[in-house]
Amino acid sequence: MANDRRASSRNPTTQEDNAMFLDILHEAPLFGHRESRSLFGSCIYLIILASYAILAAGAPWILQPVEYLIPSLLCSCNVALLMLTGMFQQYFVNQVQKIRLQGYYSFSQKLKHVVRLPFAIMAYGTASMLLFMVWRPYFSVLPILTVQRFIMSVEAISAASFMIVFVGYVRKYNSVNSQPDVLNSLYSPLQPAALEGLRYHEAGRLSDQQMALLQYQRENLHYLSEEILRLQESLSKYETNGSSTPQVDLAHLVATRDQELRTLSAEVDQLHSELNLARSLISERDREIQHVRNTNNQYVAENERLRAILGEWSMRAAKLERALEVERVSNLELRKKVSALREQRQKS
């Protein structure tokens, strides 16, 4: 046994170590209590958007009795829809958070951006309509009713498109029959080469996945605790009734749940250690990047200093060339004067 331990310590990345958690997906049976997400709120919001689009298309005929109030009413409807969209957005964000807590990380990542787009679209549309209302007395290129109907139609179509995408993802989530994909991150700590690149290049995503897995395991612990309490109550009832056979079954179920709870606690501890390791690696890489930046700044400063010295020497060389040229001119003049004096002496 001691030799086996030494051999395992010498070869820390064997196939057995890499496959240590390969059975996690089979030992985490808690996806069975997954709750389906309701589409009632999404359908109501789609109905509201359809009514809004119908109002935008038929405003001149629907609001014909109050024709002089049509621009104000359309603007008020736009603001009201913006407020409703904000309330529905909170509801949709709550739905996405529940999906994340159920362990379906990929669904939550896809949906967390989609649920915020309808409110952004409505906000931009409302701002555009209000700007047009404010500047209408100064620029009257198009009729105000036409511009308002166009903005409302674009808002309704865009928001409805994203809501249809949201409904499609929720229906896919309700019909999925597989383990939570957040458990796949348990493989990464056992793959050193792949994990190193992932930590350095997608460190934020790795930490986010591990945080989602911790939340999922916390929900599972809570569910298992309630299940154990329920089984203990049932066991106590059977014990008071004096039945023997159900006691054995319930005791086995309680022991199984207790073992699953211990397994999940060990997984949570493992994930905490992996998360701390990832954070330490990220901080180490940040320090290396900061050191490289400081070195680069030193090189830049040294380069600037050398350029300044080179410019100074260039100026000095130019000054010396000018002085040399002046000296040559003066020498030529002196030679001419000397030759002239010699000629005068020879004549005399």
From TrEMBL:
Keywords: Coiled coil, Membrane, Transmembrane, Transmembrane helix
Coiled-coil intervals, chain numbering: 221-281
Domain of life where this protein originates: Eukaryota
InterPro entries referenced in this protein's UniProt entry, alphabetically: TMEM192
Keyword field contains Transmembrane helix: yes
Transmembrane segments: 43-63, 69-93, 114-138, 150-170
PANTHER family, per database record: TMEM192 FAMILY PROTEIN, TRANSMEMBRANE PROTEIN 192
Protein name: Protein FIP1
